[in-house]
Amino acid sequence: MASITRQLSSNLSFEDALELLSRDERFMATVSTMNSLLVKKGIYSTAEFQEIFVEWAAAQIEKTDSSRPSKR
Fold first, then answer.
1. Using CA atoms, how far apart are residues 16 and 12, in angstroms rounded to an integer?
2. Stretch 4-30: mean pLDDT, rounded?
3. Which is higher by pLDDT, 35 or 66?
4. What is the DSSP letter of 6?
5. Which of 41, 58, 59, 38 is nearest to 49 (CA)?
6. Type and span of the H or E element at 34
7. CA 39, CA 66: separation in Å to the nearest integer?
8. pLDDT tier for residue 1 given thresholds of 50, 70 and 90
């Protein structure tokens, strides 16, 4: 991983944030960051994101509990 020393507004460095967050929290932060960047850069709109999100959620809900990742 590249060393990034940029300080955040809360004076928390990127490295410190990585150290302090759990694996799941780091994953969630990565997804949130990527989606924010894609919306800000106009790659897709918030409405498009929400539409695809709902489609994915509906497909998950139709599955049996044993085949859903969070229900195993």
1. 6
2. 84
3. 35
4. P
5. 38
6. helix 23-40
7. 33
8. very low
